Amino acid sequence: MPTLDRFSSQAELYARYRIDYPPELYQWLLPQVPGRQRAWDCATGNGQVAVVLAGHFQQVEATDLSASQLAQAPARANITYQPSTAEHAPFPASHFDLITVAQALHWFELAAFNQEVNRLLRPGGVVAEWGYGLVQVSPELDPLIREFYAGTMRPYWDNNRWHIDDEYARLPFPFAGVQQARFAVHRQWSAEWFLNYLRTWSSVVKYEKQHGHDPVPGIADELTQLWGPGERTVAFPVFARLGRRE
């Protein structure tokens, strides 16, 4: 099965309302990469990770299935954006010091992707894969959010999504020197911002395509009342794993 595209239709919302990743993640990752010539950010989306890598590598290649997502990515002199699948990338063998995949691995055909990683990494090069789980806000809001996520939206999530809940534990990672780490992202969001974040979910987009209306208003009144007029701290648990090509 090829990589699935679930994010083209909400590319503008995705660029605005999705989180980026904490500095601590890059502080953990980058010292373990043996070179600084070339990095590949696979399934780059709107280029969040590619832009960070551009500050550390001579050249960054950033690919995604979605031209709509790539259109939202910031231009940098040393980033080349292009459409490509994860499983068949247009690069020569032993080309990269680092390959990254953020919040996308669960959409890939893993055997083909892992073979591609082994082809494209230099010996000793690093592959790093990470994602983030369900947002947490407060004891009174979290049950409502979880019911929307795992109840209302459950029929509309692709089965691939559930790999996020177990932090990729069932997804193969056939590389050497495996390390794992956890981080957290904290943001200050209003209820309106949070509701727009929900509209970036692939399940919400799928629901709207099937039923012809947005499901988010069904949760909006109760969530907004519980949230209150100000901003709240939202927390996203981030998990990561790292390995090397021998």
Question: Which helices and strands appear, and what pairs or packs with what?
Answer:
Blueprint: H1 11-17, H2 23-29, E1 38-42, H3 48-54, E2 59-64, H4 67-70, E3 79-83, E4 96-102, H5 110-120, E5 121-132, H6 142-152, H7 162-165, E6 176-189, H8 191-198, H9 202-211, H10 217-227, E7 232-244
Parallel strand pairs: 1-2, 1-4, 2-3, 4-5
Antiparallel strand pairs: 5-7, 6-7
The gross shape turns out to be elongated
The top-level CATH class is: Alpha Beta
Task: Please state the CA-atom Rg, rounded to the nearest Å.
Answer: 18 Å
Find the CATH topology: Rossmann fold
As residue ranges, the low-confidence spans are 4-9
List the domain count as a whole number: 1
Calculate the mean pLDDT score and round it: 93
Calculate the terminal CA-CA distance, rounded to whole Å: 27 Å
Beta-strand level of the residues, as a percent range? 25-35%
The sequence of SSEs as H and E is HHEHEHEEHEHHEHHHE
CATH architecture: 3-Layer(aba) Sandwich
- Largest beta sheet, briefly? 7 strands, mixed
- Give the count of helical stretches: 10
Number of strands: 7
Structural class: alpha/beta
Strand order of the largest sheet: 3-2-1-4-5-7-6
Q: Tell me roughly what share of residues is in helical segments.
A: 25-40%
CATH superfamily: Vaccinia Virus protein VP39
Can you walk through the features of this model?
This protein has 246 residues and is an alpha/beta fold. It is 33% helix and 25% strand. It is built from ten helices and seven strands. The chain has a seven-stranded mixed β-sheet with strand order 3-2-1-4-5-7-6. The longest helix has 11 residues, at 110-120. Mean pLDDT is 93; it is low at 4-9. This is SAM-dependent methyltransferase. It holds the Pfam family Methyltransf_11.
